[in-house]
Amino acid sequence: MEAVYALVGAILFGAGLYGMFAHRHLVRKVIAANIATSAVFLILIATAHSGEETVADPVPQALVLTGIVIAVSVTAFALVLIRHFVDLTGTADLDEER
Amino acid sequence: MLIKALLAVGAAGTFALLAWVAVPLQRDVGLQALVADQLAHSGADHEITAVLLNFRSFDTLLEVGVLLLAVLATRALPTSGVDHVLPTATRPANTLLVEWMLPRMLVMAVVVAGYLVWAGAIRTGGAFQAGTVLAAAGVLLLIGRASARLPTGAAWRLALAVGLLAFVGFAIGSGLIGSGLLTYPTSGAELLILAIELGMTVSIGACFLQLVGGVHDRDGEGGR
Q1: Backbone φ, ψ for residue A93 (5° rounding)
Q2: Which residues of chain B have pLDDT under 50?
Q3: What are the helix (H) ranges across chain B?
Q4: A73 and A54 in contact (C-beta within 8 Å)?
Q5: Kindly report the CA angle at B61 between B57 and B67, in degrees rounded to 5?
Q6: Does residue A94 sit at the B interface (CB-CB below 8 Å)?
Q7: N or C: which end of chain B has fewer CB atoms below 10 A?
Q8: What ipTM does this complex have?
Q9: Angle between helices A58-89 and B127-144 (to 10 degrees)
């Protein structure tokens, strides 16, 4: 049953990875990166609950807690960089024909 | 178009690989027995707190460091006319509801944050949750009060850094005593963990607030 979490995590990671490279808008890239990050957390949490054990493994949970803070830091820094990019170029889109 | 198709194939391949690896992982035995074994010596009664602050404290130390690094990086970027407020267009009118709710919500948030730190020793809770609640209260204040600004100055910078300072101080202290880097003494581990957690709560809250407020750093321009 818990395999659902790992599967959904794998799907989300694939989707996030695709979005990160396929989209040319910087904010879309950041959102896609966040989706991929969440997918990793989901997989980690899924591995924390192993079959017959009644107590979930606390180590992956603690790692996810740490990871969330890192993800927030990275996202905030990316947004500030995008803001700076917009100030310099007037657009957040990487497509040159615009 | 071809590139997007290739990317889609690559993403699907990544999914297949990940699913192939991650699904069987769950049948492996975790570390819960090992953690439960050592819990009595850790200075915390909750497994996740014990892992964060004791067994894997190096991870947590680096994490607070990364958080502070992100804050420093966002502050280091040049900004035109620095004024840390949200755009005026997004501000709500100061209705009676906002006026009445805001101070009470802030008091509530501080109480909840204090409880979460305290609860972290025995049940779900801890510095991260408490810091997030504090930061949320700060964001609420930034949005709800037209006059609210992100604080600056030495006291605020200390609040941003106190978590990392406490952790590094403990690391140096434990190294000097000779018990080993980031190894807690056999007695008094509870107090040390609580002190570090308190410092981290303040820092995580302040850093999150600085990060949220730092993204919106101009007054009145609105979104572009």
Answers
A1: -100, 135
A2: 81-84, 218-224
A3: 2-25, 32-38, 47-50, 57-76, 96-119, 127-144, 154-177, 189-215
A4: no
A5: 140
A6: no
A7: N
A8: 0.85
A9: 30
Q: Do the Cβ atoms of A13 and B15 come within 8 Å?
A: yes
In angstroms, what separates the C-alpha of B96 from chain A's closest C-alpha? Answer: 32
Q: For residues B105 and B95, is the Cβ–Cβ distance under 8 A? A: no
Q: How far apart are CA A11 and CA A16, in angstroms?
A: 9
Within 8 A of B204 by CB-CB distance, chain A residues are 69
Numbers of helices and strands, H then E, in chain A: 3, 0
- State both tokens at B134: 């504090």
* Per-residue pLDDT tens over the stretch B54-104: 888 888 899 999 999 999 988 887 765 444 455 555 555 667 777 888 889
Quick check: B199 and B163 in contact, CB under 8 A?
yes
Band (pLDDT 50/70/90 cuts) for residue A19 is very high
Helix, strand, or coil here: B2?
helix
Q: Cα separation of A39 and A43, whole Å?
A: 6
pTM of the model: 0.82
